[in-house]
Design a protein that fits this description.
The chain is an alpha/beta fold. The chain has 5 domains: 24-44 and 141-167; 52-137, Signal recognition particle alu RNA binding heterodimer, srp9/1 (2-Layer Sandwich), CATH 3.30.720.210; 181-359, P-loop containing nucleotide triphosphate hydrolases (Rossmann fold); 365-435, Helicase, Ruva Protein, domain 3; 446-657, Up-down Bundle (Methane Monooxygenase Hydroxylase, Chain G, domain 1). Helix content is 45%, strand content 11%. Strands 5-7-8-9-6-10 form a 6-stranded mixed beta sheet. Helix 1 packs antiparallel against helix 4. The two termini are 75 Å apart.
Length: 659
């Protein structure tokens, strides 16, 4: 018979109702009661002094003495420093007449009052005498009044102290409780239908879902599901979303916590939270523990300058023991996510802990289209929207980037008062995600616009004559971000290896902007800075990493690039000689010079076409690939000037001008 505890969710920890301290609403109730009791005591103690007072001006003590001598007083009651006066009925007119009243008197004038009463009562009958009596204040009330300020101060200090602890995240006794966020199976609405673009990763976790649904099926055959699954991938690729989908598909409890939630300034707190987290998971097995950004506590021990942090290493040790120590039959599966698997401790990655590593990579063109369709369910798209074209123009976009793209497009459509999101909004949103909004208000001098037009035209014309370069999608001289213009490419397909001829063509097209400045302008500009950086990096990769140099051969000439604080080595290791470094620099210079000369040669053969493209750019500010082909072929363009279409496509990395 199944244990009923498995169908109950654990009480959320780290909130106001943690064990180890009274709940916050009880603390507030206690404070209210203390204030009420103090107020009642204050009212009761002051009630005698307030009774009988009216809005009239109270007589002074001297006036009371005068009234005693005149026979207008029936009785006097001295109570501490207060004199309660009862006027005589039918007394002669004067200030002391009417209702009872009280007067505050100093302690050192009581003998004058006694003397005045004795003088008045001497030789008078009993009915005409003034009755003088003394009353002592209540000892209880006196003590309570003296203690009341201290009671209020202590209550306020207690309330402020407890509130400060609560704001830090937990009470004194619950400081070591895990801060995991739990989700009921009914609350976890995310399934595999909401995850796209990572089909291989989904296939890897199918058996984990089957185990969570029916663990007896695996136990009957003696199979053991991996205790830990490590999701590795760049930020935004969908690691957290995949973990939620696993929990949603399996219909089991889901404990989610970040690696940074374990690390505190007090040594031992992180290890205590690890033990508490696994204890909760065991009570609700089979279930999933999701450790996001595990590299915060799982870094390699004893490396870098200064060694490791004691608290972090103790927390890591606790994770290692819990993963390898608890019974696998309990069905607790640990899913962790990181984008830095290279810094993780080897003990985490050995069999018995994180047995399986699943790479959640950036989606390809089909995956991007599928992701766009998933997120498009939440927005209203126009009928002419082509998500396949958007997917082609967004290489290296993660799932989070694509979701942000659709959201920006929706916001743009709302600002334009449209009924649906169209292609112009999607292209504008894509460019905004990449480079920021178009700076239409920036005032650019005509000379700078002309230089930018020649620079971007140089990229476009050179690329059009190189078949190995991706097709041009658009050329624009609209300022975005730090760039005054850009030449965009629309890849036909995703590429995973780069041939040597394609790399040389890319370098040549990068240098086309500077070549155009040299041939058609009187001077060169600083706009080619980004082009030089990328061209030099590609040439260096060809020589040092990819073995594409005939003179230096297929040898890796990379230096030790491991980070000093994250790697295994404390000192840098020089792996090449000075002579080899000189040869590498010479080979890189030869590649750049040959590509630069080739770019100038290509532009010289199409001088008239370059001038036509520049004139059209200065007139329309942006041209698409077909229009560039028309101008290079000698044709003319017929469209409205400055039609406002400033959307820049997001193809291969653009050539930017930052004049």
């Amino acid at each position: 018979m199944a244990d009923n505890r498995r169908n109950r969710m654990p009480r959320r920890t780290g909130g106001d109702d943690d064990e180890g301290g009274p709940p916050l609403h009880r603390q507030r109730g206690l404070l209210v009661w203390l204030l009420l009791i103090g107020g009642v005591i204050l009212i009761v103690s002051l009630a005698p002094t307030r009774m009988g007072r009216s809005s009239r001006r109270e007589p002074s003590f001297d006036e009371v003495l005068e009234a005693v001598r005149a026979g207008r007083i029936e009785s006097l009651l001295v109570h501490g420093t207060t004199l309660y006066v009862t006027p005589r009925e039918g007394a002669p007119p004067g200030r002391i007449a009417g209702d009872k009243f009280d007067v505050i008197i100093p302690p050192d004038v009581k003998e004058y009052l006694l003397k005045a009463v004795e003088e008045h009562n001497k030789g008078r009958p009993e009915l005409d005498r003034v009755r003088l009596s003394y009353g002592e204040p209540s000892l209880l009330i006196t003590n309570l009044l003296s203690m009341l300020p201290w009671i209020v101060i202590l209550a306020l200090l207690y309330w402020m102290f407890i509130r400060q602890l609560r704001s830090a995240g937990a009470g004194v006794l619950s400081f070591g409780r895990a801060r995991a966020r739990t989700a009921n199976p009914e609350q976890t609405k995310i399934t595999f239908d909401d995850v796209a673009g990572i089909d291989e990763a989904k296939d890897e976790v199918v058996e984990i879902i089957e185990f969570l649904r029916n663990p007896e099926k695996f136990r009957r055959l003696g199979g053991r599901v991996p205790r830990g699954v490590l999701l590795v991938g760049p930020p935004g690729a969908g690691k957290t979303l995949l973990a939620k989908a696993i929990a949603g598909e399996a219909g089991r409890p889901f404990f989610s916590i970040s690696g940074s939630d374990f690390v505190e300034m007090f040594v031992g707190v992180g290890a205590s939270r690890v033990r508490d987290l696994f204890k909760q998971a065991k009570d609700h097995a089979p279930c999933i523990i999701f450790l996001d950004e595990i590299d915060a506590v799982g870094r390699r021990r004893g490396t870098g300058l200064g060694g490791g942090h004691d608290e972090r290493e103790q927390t890591l040790n606790a994770i290692l023991v819990e993963m390898d120590g608890f019974d696998s039959d309990l069905g607790v599966i640990v899913v962790a996510a990181t984008n830095r698997p290279d810094v993780l401790d080897p003990a985490l990655l050995r069999p018995g802990r994180f047995d399986r590593r699943i790479v959640v990579d950036l989606p390809d063109v089909k995956g991007r289209e599928a992701i766009l369709r998933v997120h498009a369910r939440k927005v209203k798209l126009a009928l002419d929207v082509d998500l396949k074209l958007i997917a082609r123009g967004t290489p290296y976009f993660s799932g989070a980037d694509l979701e942000n793209l659709l959201n920006e497009a929706a916001l743009l459509a709302v600002r334009r008062n449209l009924d649906a999101i169209g292609m112009p909004e999607l292209e504008e949103a894509r460019d905004k995600v990449l480079w920021g909004p178009a700076k239409k208000s920036r005032v650019i001098a005509e000379e700078e616009k002309r230089l930018t037009a020649y620079h971007e035209t140089g990229h476009a014309v050179v690329s059009k004559q190189l078949p190995e370069v991706e097709p041009i999608h658009k050329v624009a001289i609209v300022a975005r971000g730090m760039a005054l213009g850009a030449t965009m490419y629309l890849p036909e397909k995703d590429r995973y290896i780069i041939p040597r001829r394609r790399i040389l063509g890319e370098i040549t097209s990068l240098l086309g902007g500077r070549a155009a400045e040299e041939l058609f302008c009187d001077d060169i500009t600083s706009g080619a800075q980004n082009d030089f950086e990328r061209a030099t990096e590609l040439a260096r990769m060809m020589v040092c990493r990819w073995g594409m140099s005939k003179d230096l051969g297929p040898i890796s000439y990379t230096e030790n690039e491991e980070h000093l604080f994250l790697g295994r080595e404390i000192t840098r290791v020089k792996s090449i000689s000075d002579a080899t470094a000189v040869a590498i620099d010479g080979e890189i210079r030869q590649i750049i010079d040959r590509c630069h000369a080739h770019a100038k040669e290509l532009l010289n053969t199409r001088r008239e076409g370059v001038e036509r493209v520049v004139a059209a750019l200065l007139k329309y500010e942006s041209l698409d690939g077909a229009e560039v082909d028309t101008l290079l072929a000698g044709g003319e363009l017929h469209r409205e000037e400055n039609n406002g279409n400033h959307a820049l496509p997001a193809g291969a990395p653009p050539h930017e001008s930052s004049l």
